[in-house]
Amino acid sequence: MKVAVVGATGLVGTKMLQVLAERNFPVTELIPVASEKSIGKEVEFKGRQYRIVSAEDAIAAKPSVALFSAGGSTSLEWAPRFAEAGITVIDNSSAWRMDPSKKLVVPEVNAGVLTENDKIIANPNCSTIQMVVALYPLHKRYRIKRVVVSTYQSVTGTGVKAVNQLMNERQSIKGEMAYKYPIDLNVIPQIDVFLDNGYTKEEMKMVNETRKIMMDDSIRVTSTTVRIPVMGGHSESVNVEFEQDYDVQEVKDLLSQSAGVVVTDNPAAQEYPMPMDAHERDEVFVGRIRRDETQPATLNMWIVSDNLRKGAATNAVQIAEYLVEKGLLAAQ
Q: What pTM value is reported for the model?
């Protein structure tokens, strides 16, 4: 099976190559694609060197699937051209997520919506992915009415430029700024641009994507997204109001039995999920599970996951794995 990775030299593209190799995805030929300045350079995959090609050349090579992580404008321009050539695109940008004609997929939640006719499949926002993986089993059991989420997001979510800014600041080196303000020893309560309603684009992604993935427009979501000076993963404080009351131990049991979830919740031993624990892991870690004592049928929980892996690369590869397993991704 020929596999194209569009944006192969970026943080997420590089992680896609790593995850494809680790999970032994059936790649017979890798077709790495990057910007014009990178064409002709090489990337390594499973001990072999592969030459970076243009998007045009990648289409001509007829891969079965193309994993896109090259930004929204690239996806808007090129994903339809790949799709027209019969290539299934799994896109990590925000370009297609809320398009009503495109599926927005987290395999543990809604992979069943996919068919062989889906040629452009959207990968959700990183912070949305980890939240819905934890919320979906609880929604099936208790029905969610409302979610209040505050995020604590890694600089890796912004990209290499932000990682460099943090590292430069730690060493008192002046350099290019990814953010308007310093990030080391600081917290920035803005991710993406502000919208007319006073929320940021990232916050509204969490609102709209959660409803679409969980196939329930009645779920009310309000979000505050925050950038913090860490690497390794995103963290979220989530308050969930259910229609039905719950038992805390049953919640822990449900989550422990759910695909892709690890419960780390032992207050007596000070055990709870942290970004350093989630780094280079594919699971969603949940802890600090406790009753909200201010109103009925409401739960507090803390959710952590590696934003470059489950929040991006791994989720895309898992979608491709599902397509292969169901025979929806034929070799060209």
A: 0.96
